[in-house]
Amino acid sequence: MAAQINIRDIADKAGLSISTVSRVLNGKAKEYRIGKKSQEKVIKIAKELNYVPNQFAANLKSGKSKTIALIVPSLNNPFFAEIASRINTEIRKYGYITIIGETGEDQEIEKKELQQLMSRNIEGLIIVPCGNQWEHINNLYTQDFPIVCIDRYFEDLKIPFVSINNYESSFLATKYFVDNGHKNIACIQGVKESNTNILRVEGFKAALNESDIESSNIVGNDFTVKNGYKETKHLLQQEQRPTAILALSNTIAMGCMKAFKEADISVPDDISLITFDDHPYLDYLATPLTCIAHPIKDISKKAVKFIFSILTDKKLRSDQVLLKPKMKIRSSVKAID
Amino acid sequence: MAAQINIRDIADKAGLSISTVSRVLNGKAKEYRIGKKSQEKVIKIAKELNYVPNQFAANLKSGKSKTIALIVPSLNNPFFAEIASRINTEIRKYGYITIIGETGEDQEIEKKELQQLMSRNIEGLIIVPCGNQWEHINNLYTQDFPIVCIDRYFEDLKIPFVSINNYESSFLATKYFVDNGHKNIACIQGVKESNTNILRVEGFKAALNESDIESSNIVGNDFTVKNGYKETKHLLQQEQRPTAILALSNTIAMGCMKAFKEADISVPDDISLITFDDHPYLDYLATPLTCIAHPIKDISKKAVKFIFSILTDKKLRSDQVLLKPKMKIRSSVKAID
DNA sequence: AATATTAGAACAAACGTTTGTTTTAAATAA
DNA sequence: TTATTTAAAACAAACGTTTGTTCTAATATT
């Protein structure tokens, strides 16, 4: 590897001092009254030599790493992949980079990742927490470290978050089932203790309540294909088989579909289905799936904006934002009576 | 954020010099004959103070960033998302981190990302190049910078790569069409100049040739949903409508399906379809799609292993590996006669 | 003519490490 | 005792920036 050319090389070639070069390159020419010709010379030479500043040196001096960490459960889930993509793009706009950590929904891994990431002097953290333990995250918050939770969050803490109104989401979906004549509606949930799950379940119950439907059929315990599959199997064997299922994540819905297929049950003729999390491929499924869509773009933008507002204002705000969910009606719900 | 404690704090507290502390902390105690008690003291204090080394300072001095860059077209494409996920996981095992850059299939952005990433003193690069320009990439290679292309690569250059045999892939798929009685087979291609595309098209042609089918119906010019959609629309209007379509990417296939749906054409009854790139959701589509599956896990592992073997051996190898593709037969191809 | 002002640029001290070299003091050898 | 070796640790120079301060001319002011 050829030695990177540095600011001194430029200074030598231009016959100027490194401080002058640095100032020109940092756009502080006016502030420090650097002459026009000097400026031009520096810029020209920098271009010629294809100069790329050494971030480590710059960061060391300034104490800024220009790095934000993003922790998600898994990039392999299209939902989080899209989040990562959006956030990555947004962060780049600020001249920062993103380091991505994956937890695999394992809280211990989450803690380890966090430590590793911290040693990289990250300036901020955007995280989709993967469990109900919050100490390691709240510690950062109380130490005034810029942090924001997305998608999932901790209700009783002051840690800022950007998410959707999960209660409203499942309320909406459930209501839609009810309006279509469904009375025996099952809900396959994810990790029971996670707050998104709790709220979604509450919304589900509330909608049923409002419609004077008593029995609530809530099963499952994980945001995985496997859980969706297993629970659907069970549901299909109940004597009073539900006419509709609300899947609290895209992974769960995949499991549902797998089970449907094996049992040769078709959507929506034999059973109706609504899932959380939108994705283009939902349009091309055997039956295009009606879903609760997260405004991922908005969430990402808000989260990034938020981190940078903390970073620049230096004062710790504690915004907690719940965006409106949107139901994308496709054709996986049948009207019955 | 509380001020990070540094090596000097430890030195002061231990009554030792910073060099001694550094050596203990870096496991060079024996080499430099640091006394037992001093070692223990340093380690104890470091733990007490919860010392986290400043990577920037260390990196600046050592020139090592413990960072590998990964450049992909977009995380929003499940295929690349999975690659990113696998590679990220692999790289973490080495104590390194990954920075991910996205190009959006824009070569200019690719160049800029590369520059930005280089300024982070990355030690290696894994890249899915997004065009036919190779100078900026080959420059790195000739400068002995550890680099490996994955998925896409440059045939005539010595840059190492790990990919699948694209020629064989489409040959396989096309042959499968032929074996099922198809004669009028169309191929919707991606970026014409990209080598994966060229090879896939060649494999397509060769398979037809071998089967004495002359007319080859090759259309399209982009690895996008839009292109797949547009070209399918056209294909459906040809007087001799093809009975089978080979989509050279998952995005193109999505476009196909969109067009099919609009025209109320069903797979495989009205038309057969094979796509490149596998994904779990393909199983749940209206018709589960037969596809050419990349061994993503193997590709990722090999690529990462490769980067680190260059990094440690310090000698530049130029492995060029083509893995065997696998066709996953689902049910999107109909036997006709 | 002497002084003050200003534009333009250089100096030099950090930032927190790593690492080659040197110093110190104790232990061994002569 | 004096010289030599060795164990243990300190010194100090980088790494490539940023940035507060100082210097030098040239120009403007009195």
TrEMBL record, chains A, B:
PROSITE patterns registered for this protein in UniProt: HTH_LACI_2
Annotated ranges, domain HTH lacI-type: 5-62
InterPro entries: HTH_LacI, Lambda_DNA-bd_dom_sf, Peripla_BP/Lac1_sug-bd_dom, Peripla_BP_I
Taxonomic placement: Bacteria, Pseudomonadati, Bacteroidota, Flavobacteriia, Flavobacteriales
One GO MF term attached to the UniProt entry: DNA binding
Record organism: Maribacter aquimaris
Transcription listed as a keyword: yes
Name of the featured protein: LacI family DNA-binding transcriptional regulator
Keyword line: DNA-binding, Transcription, Transcription regulation
PANTHER family, per the entry: HTH-TYPE TRANSCRIPTIONAL REGULATOR GALS, LACI-RELATED TRANSCRIPTIONAL REPRESSOR
